[in-house]
């Protein structure tokens, strides 16, 4: 074995922390595994040279780098090792010098962040590799969570918190001339998600690692995320997200892990009778891994993200040298753009194709990886019937639906299983989480587009659909024909398709002749009718198509039969219903809140629930208490620990309920208010920096931060603020002060780039804010602020500072929500409708500690019908607000289209579909109760404490335990 050595000065030459305090020789596995570094620590003083001896192992093929946990004697060294501030500082200095991403002249904040993160990753690698190897050797059943979004937030503070190294890193950085908080702020949020779907997935990964469940996450590595939001005088503007411009210290590319992905082409049948998908466009998906550490545990699981590219052989060198540069790079560009953007606009055919490519890439690459792992762990005895006993695949919403036909394709076409075997395995492996109660929001794809892009999968989906039709006919064949057709129309995966030929005879209707005397017309496929009416008529045939019944010119004899030529009819497009495929192909379907799961069973998938009631479950969402209290709200965390007498609440949130017994204690209330105020002071500085607006910390912080969407009703909130402002303007200064408490109304969230109405709402909020915030008569009594580019890091600052949070969606339209849980955990009182998880939060915290308003879910359909019939009478206060906006009080922008959506009785984009006008009176009256409660700070503090105490149910740890037990059938396993 070759050995080399070199010397370095003290400034940054000490290698991480796996050496004891005395001078001795120890080993360390480097991150790239190409060498083992052995450090002789010769001095503690700057300026004295240290010698490093490097033993090369790259010349020793087939030699496996030993796991530190299994290496003799190493486990005891590592398990007893607790790095102090000095050794952490040495590690940071080492990475600043020997893992350089910045020039060596200065040790400024960006460089300090990367060096700090790299030193943390060294610690994570030990547990990460040990976890990976342990799962491999034990051949455990493993859960795989597939999601198009993972809204991770910053990783540094979370990682050192989970490793219990926050104090050591804070002191080390202080000794190096930096503040931990400033270093942490250098990390950009990973642009891998946008809203609650992605944040839920990230909370789940945290809980899976913390609870020691064998599990991985799978997603896509978006280069630009959704977009970076800027707020200008014109409202929201979108820029490309730059989170990867300086690289990410947390991800490790696995160049040895890549899988082929195919699009287009055709399907042929070989001489062996097997199906072959040939030709088309070929790319490859390459794995990037991100460690997910658990809290106070060695378990560090993996988030595997796929990036897309093509082999170098696909670069057309000849074309490039001929000057055809674009043509030469075309294949690479087509592959790379798949992972450019989260949710690319799908208004064009090209946009739809790109979205479908994204979804298939996620599903195919992940399943190939899962299957390769299953085969490797099985060794020489692969038993495919055991696949569901080793693998659980969870589809987070309908985006990963293609897992079902892709798993079938791999098992049948590549592994040689029969249809029956593959279908049985697939149904036992895959499960589906539903995130919407809106039938129009359930994902559908054009059959024509899918057939073009994924021809083999369309064949498999057709076979699944036909099998479903047979099962429905077998179960409900005794129904009247019309009822059976209705059931098939609702349940089939393929929409607007003819009945499969195998059962078509059951639906054949005999042709009926026309009796001229009765003037009754019955139309079949070939229509011969008699008519005594020379005027045009239009009737519907048995398929619902319009048919013209006009006699030929000159026809006099009413008994003469006339061949009728049907008018051209609009043929509805053939679609593939992804949610139906999820329900059919999965063994479990769960909603994400109690009310949502009931709507899923009773409305969205009622026919499926009647057929397979055992499939349907509820799994109310949860959020990790580590990120959402322990790390983002240290003042409150200290108080909870002090009064419960333990820090066990971080792992067992049931302990939070113990705060109830101290709720009337004045000392606790004083500490509680001081903690809230300290968080608000931080938020004041942040708001000034980001928006330029100055606010006072003693005002009520009223916050609505979430994706901008009409059903979430930011419009109701801002209309309530406009009403408040108008009433203030009509009062004297003394009257205003007597009636209203000071409020800072904060909004945050992104409107999808092509969602015009949502972008109008953003523009309106900013215009209202610009007017109110500069009105000297109002002063600090009311401020309206829109925080640009809302993300996890902003949430971690605003949520602990919140007094009141708004969760005001139209009842029955929010599946669950998770921000409502985060606010409750941080002692924030909520105003909201009985929607999503609000229902359960209100039950847990107490009705008197939740401000409730608005129509309930079971009333919504009737209220919309009432509106359509012209019976709705708007409240005069609502009309007053609309007139005030139209008067130009908030600038010259024309808001007719925005306000018009709230008017009329029918029509797309009109008729107030989300019932803003209906709930407005109830909302502003409820806000008056909020003012009254806030004036009594003792009462408000008590309500705040009870919100935190009542949030114990909403930990993602509880949710994950339920998934593991009821859906995945996996057990927690601690590393030795």
Provide a descriptive summary of the structure in words.
The protein has 35 helices and 30 strands. The protein is 41% helix and 15% strand. Mean pLDDT is 88; it is low at 1-81 and 518-558. Helix 13 packs antiparallel against helix 14 (419-429) and helix 22 runs antiparallel to helix 23. The protein is globular and about 90 Å long. Among the domains are: 83-138 and 163-188, no CATH class; 625-856 and 920-953, Glycogen Phosphorylase B (Rossmann fold). The strands form eight sheets. It has a nine-stranded mixed β-sheet with strand order 9-12-13-6-5-14-15-23-24, with helices on both faces. Strands 27-26-25-28-29-30 form a six-stranded parallel β-sheet, sandwiched between helices. Strand 19 and strand 20 form a beta hairpin. With 976 residues, it is α/β, with parallel strands linked by helices. Residues 553-562 have a biased composition (Basic and acidic residues). Belongs to the glycogen phosphorylase family. Residues 525-563 are annotated as: Disordered. One of its GO terms (biological process) is glycogen catabolic process.
